[in-house]
Amino acid sequence: MTSDSSQAIDARVRAAAAGDARAVRALLSELLPRSRNLVRYLVRGDADVDDIAQEALVAVLRGLPTYRADGSFRAWSDRITARVTFAYLKRTRSRREVELPDLSLVADPGAPPDEYAIRRQTVRMLDRLPDDQRQVLVLHHVMGMSLPEVAGELCVPLETARSRLRLAKQKLRALRGEP
């Protein structure tokens, strides 16, 4: 990302935090596909993805006054999205999970069809991982968090996070038919 686009995002964030409705709409339009994809990577099936993504974007908007611009705005909003997703999963853990077919994915606007197919295949493979392994893998490889950060985010010991990541990679290799 160039510093110009980073400055544009920062200006939009400041304007949205100040209550500028146009800036809020622009920010939400930019964040929605990213938030939805992250939620979809973290949860199994599409049934609740839109609800969780909406809840996450509301949390981002509510948190705008606390954003300090110490790091990337996208990374900050990704962490909020992940936390909202984990909170949702904890609330619904007692419900019996019903397997639903993967009906759709939101690809980035203008993405070529082959990229969409790759995303669908990736999500199908993620759906076959246990939730704990899937979450560690997504936080580490999609969000770029270090293993100590992942362990902190998931409230598990570092060695547990490391083990889950190793097991997730092994299972993905097996799913892909690799030794």
Please provide a written account of the structure:
This protein folds into two domains: 103 residues, RNA polymerase sigma factor, region 2, helix turn helix motif (Rna Polymerase Sigma Factor, Chain: A, Orthogonal Bundle); 69 residues, Orthogonal Bundle (Arc Repressor Mutant, subunit A). It contains eight helices and no strands. Helix 6 crosses helix 7 and helix 6 crosses helix 8. The chain is globular, with a radius of gyration of 17 Å.
Condensed summary:
This protein has 179 residues and is an all-alpha fold. It has helices at 3-17, 21-42, 49-63, 73-92, 113-127, 131-142, 147-154, 158-176. Helix 1 (3-17) packs across helix 2.
Structural class computed from helices and strand pairing: mainly alpha
CATH topology of the largest domain: Rna Polymerase Sigma Factor, Chain: A
Strand content: under 5%
Helix content: over 70%
Helix/strand layout:
Elements: H1 3-17, H2 21-42, H3 49-63, H4 73-92, H5 113-127, H6 131-142, H7 147-154, H8 158-176
Summary tags:
mainly alpha; globular; 0% strand; 179 residues; 2 domains; Arc Repressor Mutant, subunit A; Rna Polymerase Sigma Factor, Chain: A
